[in-house]
# Entry
Amino acid sequence: MPLSKKTDFLGLYSKEQKKIFLFILSMVHRQTDAEDIMQQTAAEMWRMFDRFKEGTNFAAWGITIARYRILDYRKKQVRNSLFLSEDVYRKVIQEFQAILPSSDKRKNALRGCLNKLKESDRRMLSMHYEDGFNYKQIAEKLRASKTGIYKIMARIHTNLNRCIQKTLLIWETNG
# Structure
């Protein structure tokens, strides 16, 4: 596989890996089994990358491959009564694939809304979501009360949610 193809695969995979894994986990329920299936899926995606059509939905393609790995897994685990019927699995798969495009729209709306925030609000979100600080640690770092940080973060989340909903509505209306 040429270097650019490898780079293309790695870029797409790193961007969409979480969606694919969440799908697998929603269908398998056990973390270790889901991780095994994700590894199998990634290996197969790598082997089949020449078949991926550029410009199509990489996550949906990966989920399709994962679905077959999940079906193989389920055949081996058929005695386990925790599994849902095949019809229920098909419905979950259809629902999950239906929300993939809307989740991309939500991400794009979120990016735009984040850019509208004050720098101090973006910094607090970054501390929490990128640096992994809990609210107590943020309060200590900013020399503020923990209760104050909770209130500020609640306000930021509320404002982001409103902005995302408004943006999606505008996009839908202007369609």
